[in-house]
Amino acid sequence: MTNLQSVKKFYLTTAIDYANGSPHIGHAYEKILADTIIRFKRLEGIECYFLTGLDEHGQKVAETAQKQSTLPQALCNRVADDFKNLCARLAVNYDDYIRTTEERHKVVVREVLQKLHDGGEIYRAEYAGLYSTRAERFVQEKDKIDGRWPDDIGEPIELKETNYFFRLSHYQGWLVDFLNKNQDFVVPAFRQKQVLEFLKEPINDLCISRPKSRLSWGIELPFDSEYVTYVWFDALVNYISAAGYGENRFEDYWPADYHIVGKDILVPAHSVYWPIMLHALEIPQPKHLFAHGWWLAKGGEKMSKSLGNSVQPLDYVDLYGADAFRFFLLREMIAGQDGNFSHDLFVSRYNGDLANDLGNLISRLTNMVGRYCSGKIPAPATEESLDQDIQESAQRLIQSVRMEYGKFAFHMGLEQIFDFVGRLNRYIEMRAPWQLAKQGDNSSVKLLNTTLSFVAKGVHIVAELLRPIMPKICVEILHRLGATITDTWENLSWATSLVGNEILSGEILFPKVEWGE
Ligand code: MSP
Predict the structure, then answer these.
(1) Which atom from ligand 1 is nearest to the alpha carbon of 15?
(2) pLDDT digits (tens, 9 = 90+) for 475-517
(3) What residue owns the CA closest to ligand 1's atom 12?
């Protein structure tokens, strides 16, 4: 039955993180990217639903728990707290956090397995092959890169086992066809090409079980209690179990608008297993998969604890605040491509863009309105071409930033916003309000009022446009301007009046910070 009140929500998911380690910059980035998209969509007046969560089953989690002499569930509970805390500290506001050990998830995994089994999509067979403990799957010679096993596979072992298999290969042709018909299924486009490239070779059926004798930490198969479900098959189902598959509310969410995932888990998990699982279950496909790149260490190498080059997100949040960290990650990474994290670059962006350009602009405005206009934002009095230029570029900025954000090109939107911030600073310097105030004649005072009024409007627009990326600080800036904090950008325009608002001063927004011990 359709609920007439309900609206299909913009449903966005992230990957669910493995519960066998602590959160790092990759996890932080993906959550921040997703949260920024959601905040942007909400400001555009769209109803949204944002899901993230934790991937708790599988061999790696079981092994980590064993090494730490604890039970897997106890480990997962602790890790879930760490990841939820990371989200809170990063101002990542998810609507739902799914954990794959929750009953609501297990019920759906069993239901899906039973349905596929009943439909003849899952069969039992003996398989002998090379098994990678690291990747938790059977691998083939063709998985070698330049004749060697890549790091994410490690040295595989020979294994002969009876297991359950999902008829993946049966749907290979369908998938290729689907991708050719839906050319923007995987974004960016070059990633869709990689998927099609992968599909040029025949694919194997997917082993979806693990015998309990080898691994017991998983969801028991509904049709054979000697086995648990393969962790990837279990994990992918989170996107529908959290959305209430089988319940009326499911249609308020599904199909997902975007699954945001890292490039490493696009092929084959999200772009091959998942679409085929859905197709076999007769569930519509998600609209898009968005694959982001990886944060690498300074020299372009992979970050890892053992190399000592990994970045601890909370160290940055502690010192510079969540807003500055979010800003940096979105400014520096071209969404979809890899990015290099360098502390020097972070500091130079923080000091340059945030402290000097934006921070100074706001403190100059506050000081001058306080000194020359008794603390109240003045009305513009006269307009010259310089003022008109500011007005026009502000209007253009609103359009083009919204367009860039719509393409998830946050780095571009931010570049344009900070160009405009630079323009506002230059506008102040050219007008030199301190001299106009000294001159004190009627026309100087008029120009002074226009300048400060326009700078205030400009800052207002900048703060609005930065809201998806720097949610806390922007609300503070808007508050200082006495601006109304609206739910959407419906009325965002140069026309919004701030005249007569009392401007509030406050603590320095981006204090200089010493990075030390
Ligand atoms: N549990 C699986 C995902 C299951 S989704 C149904 C997994 N977990 S993970 O913890 O290893 O990775 C979670 C996400 O973080 C992935 O999308 C991964 O690409 C991303 N990142 C991990 N390291 C990263 C970087 N260094 N940079 C950017 N993101 C990377 O995979």
Answers:
(1) 5
(2) 999 999 999 999 999 999 999 999 999 999 999 999 988 776 4
(3) 17
